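Handout, section B. The chain below has 315 residues.
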Amino acid sequence: MLDQILAPLTPKSTRPLPVTFRRYILDEYLPTKSRAWKRSTERTTEALLADHVLPAFGDRPIATISRRDLQGHLDALAARGLSRSVVARVRFQLAAIFRMAASDGVVALNPAEGLVIPKCKPAIEKRIVPTEVLARAEAALELRDRCIFRLAAFEGLRPGEICGLQLRDVTPDGLRIERRVYRGNLDSPKSHRSRRLVPLTSGTRALLEVYLQTLPSREPEAWLFPSESLKTPLDPGNVWRRRIGPALRAAGIEGVNYQVLRRTWVTRFAEAEQDPRVRAQIAGHGVDVHVNIYQQPDAEALKRAVRRFERRILQ
């Protein structure tokens, strides 16, 4: 309103041009926020904004975008079949962008306040792998790929943590997680909890001892799973697409990936270790994430829990 009142008194040559949504994100939001983000967070956020936000609002003056516009966009994303997690991330970024814009005085009010996540498509069932399938999968893999598979399924490591291992990280007490490979880039672990020591199962340690004898370099800084050049680590996605995945499918094992293996490990490990703090420490994440996101009790576990309850009631 103030701009409208002053417009007749302000020479056209000195009137500021409207700030577009795209310009504000590129000139202010991303340069400011990325100072505190890991490179992986920066890349995923840029991709999220490029795919799901900028096409809708990029060329509009940011001050003209209303809450109705933003809520309608979230509704449209849900209608397109995007998962709740993606829509929630879009909502989070919109709220952060307009909160900063309001503090900069670019918008008078924050239109992202009060946005709600619409109903989205049902989440895909979070699968875990039966123990007998793990044994079949191991038998179908060659030595290097079998080591990678076991570190995911029996030690619960993330794929980037596996491929980020160097020989110096293999210690008598277990594996030191100091780095990870993310989208082809060497990066620090996902969070401060992810930097940890992971004890090895006896089966994995025995397998690694055999595998270590096949490596061309025994230097401490050498990669445990090197690429063909030996100068860089394997890309976890490539080795799964080209080697592990096809071998599992040839053995009749479908629907398995790194995330399924980690979720399987969390669930099975919970059956052996009762203290959630110990489990979360080894997994490299918080207790709430460990219990609420990864742990997936199967039907047999639920039946056993009911039988234990029944015995206690009847005592």
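Note. The chain has a mean pLDDT of 86. Compare this with the example in section A.
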